[in-house]
């Protein structure tokens, strides 16, 4: 009897550990590539004539659209790729390459092209609503974030894994909302140097994730 109880306890502990590991991996992967801090300067520039309540509304809608975009790709991204005859190993390798490109841009911000060009920023200032474009896409849920989500979906072993990843996406969206909402205050204390340091740290994590995606794709392709 006691042996059965201990056995069940071990199974539960192992299950809980696996769930926690999956959540941390999903959250770290998405937040490092999305990097909401990098969206802060663009957000401040595009909302410089808005009131505080209008800024909060834009931050709320941008984060919601980000969540919506990533959830859609989490649920149907692999099916879209499969429709075009792309295998799961191919999805993982391609996703890893996209993440590596995004990570390189984060590690070398001066030598890399911006997520949004100066011309696009000028055009965005003329728009009445910037929450979906350019804030949600491509600033918060660009190609790198989408690649991460599709890569995670390709490695999911069932509905529960997708649910855990969805919760991670929700947390990233909430953090993105908080970062944008507090942007006027955070920018004063963090400063350009602090933002560069954080962005490079996120870039290193993103690069490691990209490499891991590629290795997973290669090992899956060869059945290793």
TrEMBL record:
Pfam family, one: MarC
GO cellular component: plasma membrane
Cell membrane is among the record's keywords: yes
Main localization category: membrane
Top-level taxon of origin: Bacteria
UniProt KW Cell membrane keyword: yes
InterPro entries to which the protein is assigned, alphabetical: Multi_antbiot-R_MarC
Parts of the chain that traverse the membrane: 20-44, 64-84, 90-107, 135-153, 159-180, 201-222
Cell compartment(s), UniProt: Cell membrane
Topological category with respect to the lipid bilayer: Multi-pass membrane protein
Keywords: Cell membrane, Membrane, Transmembrane, Transmembrane helix
UniProt cross-references to PANTHER family, sorted A to Z: UPF0056 MEMBRANE PROTEIN YHCE
Entry similarity comment: Belongs to the UPF0056 (MarC) family.
Protein's recorded name: UPF0056 membrane protein
């Amino acid at each position: 009897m006691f042996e059965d109880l201990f056995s069940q306890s071990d199974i539960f502990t192992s299950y809980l550990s696996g769930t926690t590991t999956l959540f941390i991996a999903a959250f770290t992967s998405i937040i490092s590539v999305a990097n909401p801090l990098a969206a802060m300067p663009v957000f401040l520039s595009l909302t410089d004539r808005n009131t505080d309540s209008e800024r909060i509304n834009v931050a709320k809608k941008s984060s919601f659209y980000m969540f919506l975009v990533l959830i859609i790709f989490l649920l149907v991204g692999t099916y879209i790729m499969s429709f075009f005859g792309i295998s799961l190993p191919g999805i993982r390798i391609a996703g890893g390459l996209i993440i590596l490109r995004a990570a390189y841009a984060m590690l070398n911000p001066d030598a890399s092209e911006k997520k949004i060009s100066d011309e696009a920023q000028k055009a965005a200032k003329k728009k009445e609503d910037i929450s979906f474009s350019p804030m949600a896409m491509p600033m918060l849920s660009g190609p790198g974030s989408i690649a991460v989500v599709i890569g995670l979906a390709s490695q999911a072993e069932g509905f529960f894994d997708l649910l855990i990843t969805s919760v991670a996406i929700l947390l990233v969206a909430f953090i993105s909302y908080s970062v944008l909402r507090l942007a006027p205050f955070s920018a004063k204390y963090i400063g350009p140097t602090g933002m560069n340091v954080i962005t490079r740290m996120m870039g290193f994590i993103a690069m490691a994730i990209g490499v891991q995606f590629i290795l997973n794709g290669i090992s899956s392709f060869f059945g290793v």
